[in-house]
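Repro case for the chain-ordering regression, as requested:
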Amino acid sequence: MTAFLRRQAVPLLVLPALAAAPFLGFGDSFALTLLARAMILGMAAVSLSLLVGGAGLVSLGHAAMMGIGAYTVAALDAAGVTEGLVVLPTAVLAAALFALATGAVSLRTSGVHFIMITLAFGQMAFFTASSISTLGGDDGYTLFGRTELFGTRLLENRLGFHFLCLGLLALVWILCSALLESRFGRVLRAARENPQRVRAIGFSPYPYRLVAYVLAGAVAGLAGALLANATEFVSPAALSWSRSGELLFMVILGGMSHLYGAILGALAIVLLEEWLSHLLEYWRLAFGPLLVLSVLFLRDGLAGLPAAVLSRLPVGRATRRGGPERSGADA
Amino acid sequence: MREPLLELQGLHKSFGALTVTEDVSLTVMPGEIHAVIGPNGAGKTTLIHQIGGTLRPDRGRVLFAGRDVTALPMERRARLGLARSFQITSIVPGFSALENVALAVQARSGSSFRFFRPARGEAALNGQALEALATVGLEGRAGVPAGAMSHGEKRQLELAIALATKPRLLLLDEPLAGAGPEETGRLIGILRSLRERFGILLVEHDMGAVFALADRISVLVYGRVIVTGTAGEVREHPEVRRAYLGEDELA
Amino acid sequence: MSLSLVLVQLLNGAQFGVLLFLVAAGLTLVFGVMDFINLAHGVQYMLGAYVAASLGVWAGDFWLGLLMALPVTLLIGLALEWLVFRHLYQRDHLAQVLATFGVILTLDEAARAIWGSAPLNVPQPGGLPGGIEIMPGLIYPVYRLVIIGAGLLVALLLWFLVERTRAGMLIRAGASNAPMVSALGVDIRRLFTAVFAFGAMLAGFAGALASPVFAVAPGMGDNVLILAFVVIVIGGIGSIRGAFIAALLVGLLDTAGRALLPDLLRLVMDASSARQTGAAIASMLVYIVMAAILFFRPVGLFPGPRA
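-- result from build under test --
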C-alpha cells in the first residue's frame, strides 16, 4: 500500500487539488472554464499517452477523434437531440468508429510514416468538417445549449460540470492505468519495446494495437463532446493538426513514464499559457524557451520531476528549491 | 518410422542474382539436435528466417509436424510450437526477467484481450514462468530488469522464453555467439538437458559445441547442403574438409 | 475549362512545387542523414521572407534583399544548431519534436514582435517585365517563371553536390553508417552542422523567393512545413530525387485540385455544393494521395539510405 501511495503520489495530490480548487479562490466562471478546458484536454492527452507511451504509436491525428466527438454533439444539437445519455455514447461511438477505420489502415505503417498517415486522416477530417455548411463550415457552430442529463440542465451548472470533468478524468486515468497493467497492456508494452520478440512467442501486435487505437479514440471522442459543452461552440479548429500537435506536446512535456504525466502536461500548458499571456504581451517569447529548456533538462518530463529533484537533494529535508528543472512546473 | 518434426523440401531463395538458399532439404526428428554449420555467407541465417517465418522462400515447402507452414507468418508458426532465439538476443529490455517469460506463458494461456486484472499478479503465469527460469538456471534473477542482465544471462533468458511457449521445436540461431567460456559451458549444459524433450535445430559457429551436442549435422556451403550426417561422418567427408575446414584454417 | 487555364494551373503548381522542394530538401537531408526531426525548419522559410523583405526595403531593391537573405538565414541556422539542435541529436524523436516546436513558438512570436501581426508589404522585384505572353492571349508573370527556373537550378546543383562531390559522398555515407564514417577520421559533427546550415539557407531562399507572391506573415512557415513533411514522406526520407518528384507532385495536385475540382464537380452537382465539396476535396487531395502511397508503399516512393 505505501508503495502504491508513493508511486501514485502525484495524481493523488493533483486530483484532490483540482477538486478543492473551486473552493480555494478559483470558483469564478473564468477560472472554472479554464480548469475544465485543462481537465478535458488532460483526458484526451491521457488517451494519447496510452498510445504514445504505452503502445509506441505516435499519432498526429488525435484531435480528429476529439473533433468528431465535438461535431457529434453539434450535429445532434442541430437535430434537436440534447439528452446526454444519447449524445455522449453517440459521440464516443462515432470517434471509435473513425479510429477503427483509420487505425486499420494506419497501423500497416510504423514510425514516422505512422505519424504522417495519422496526420493525413486528421487533415481529411478537418477539411470535411470545414465543408459541412449546415454546421457552419469554417465558421463553426454555436450550440443552442449544453447537453442535458436525464432531461435536466445539470451541465449548465459550472460547478457541476467541473466535477463531471474531474470525475471522468480520474476514471479515464484509472482505467487506462489498469489497461496498461493488464494482459492486454503487457502485450502492447512488449510490442512497443520489441515487436520481433512478441511475434516470436506467437502474438501478432496488429489487433492489440488496433484495439488500443480504438479505445484511445473513444476516450478522445468523450473529451471532445465535453469540450463542445465547455465552450458551447464547435469549429474545425478542434480537429486541426496544430491541436493534435498540442496534445502530443502535453504528453511529451508531461513525460511518458507514467500516464498521469499527460495530466500534468495538459495542466502545465493550459495554465502556463493563460498565466504568461496575462503577464506579457509577447508571452510565447517566454513559453517557447521554457519548452526547449524542459526538453534539455527534464529528461522524463514533468512526471519525472519529483524523482529528478529528490536525486539531486542531500538526504533529508528539502532545503534547495528551484533550479532549472523546476522552470516548467511552476504553473 | 517416426514422422519428422520439421521437414524442409527443396527450399530456394535468391535476392536478385544472388542465390542464398539452393534446393535445401533436411529434417529434424523429435528429440533430435540437428546442427546446421557452414562458413560465413553460407546462408545459414537466411535459412533460419525461412524456417522461422520472417522470410518467404521462392520455391519449396516448410512442413512442421506434417503441416505445410510455408505461407504462415512467424506468430502463427510460434503458436504451432516453433520457438526461436535470435542471433542478436531478442528480449524485452524494460521488462523484468520474470515478466519476459510470463508474457510467453501468457501467449498460450487463454485470451490476452483482458483489460482490467493486473497481469503481474496472475499466479498461474508467474508459476510456469519461474519454472522455465529455473530450467535455465535463472530462478534467482527473476526480478532483475532484462536490459540490465549480462550477455550470457540474456542468452539464458531467451532460452527460458522459448521454453515457456511449450514448443515442440527450438530454432536456435547461434545461441553461444558472444558468450564467454564459462557462459558457453553453462549454455551447453542447458542445451544438453533439453534434448529428448524437444527437437532442436541449431545454427552455431562454435564447432566444439556443435560436435559435442548434435545428433546430426548438415553442412551448408553457398546455400547448398553438401552433406548431412553424424559428427564422425561429417568430419571425414572430403568435400567438407576442402570447402569448410580448409577455409576455416586459412581464416 | 480551356487549355490556357490548365497551362496556368500547371505553371502555378510547378512554382509552388519548386518552393516546396527548396524547403523539403533541407528537411529530408537533416532527417535522413542526422535522423533529426526539425519542426523549426519552416521557421527558416518565414525568416527568409521577412529578412529579404526588410533588407529589400532598406537597400531599395528586392534582389539585393534576396541576396542578403542567404547569408543571414545561413547564420541563423548555424546559431540555432549551436544553441539548441546539437544538444538533441542523441535524444529520441519526441524530444526533438517538442524542443523544435518551442523554437517555432519563440521565433514566430519574435517575428510578430518585430514586424507586427499584419502581412508585410514586400517590394516587388524590379528590372523584370511584368508579364510575358506564353500563349496567344495568355500573359503570365515573369517573376513566377523566375521562381520555377531558380528552383530547377538549385535542384540540379543539389543533385550534383550530393551525387558527384566528396562532401556529398560523405553525406550519403554518414546517412547509412555515421559511426563508421567518423571512425574513418571524418568530423561527422562538422559535416552535420554544414548540412544543417545549408538546409536552413535553402529554406530561407525559398521564403525570400516566395515573399513577393505570398503573404509574409508570422506563422507562414507552419503550413509549408507540414506540406514539406508530406513531400519527404511521399518521396522517401533522405532522398533528394524523391523530394524533388514528390514536391512537384504535391505542388501540382494542390494547385490544380483547387482550381479545377470545383469546375469538374459542377458536372455532377449544383454550383454551390460543387464549390464547397470541390474546395474540401482539393484541400484533402495531397493527404489522400499520401495515405494511399503509404498504404501501398510504406517507405515512400524512393526509400533513402535509412529505410
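Ordering looks correct now. The beta strands of chain A are 141-142, 233-234.
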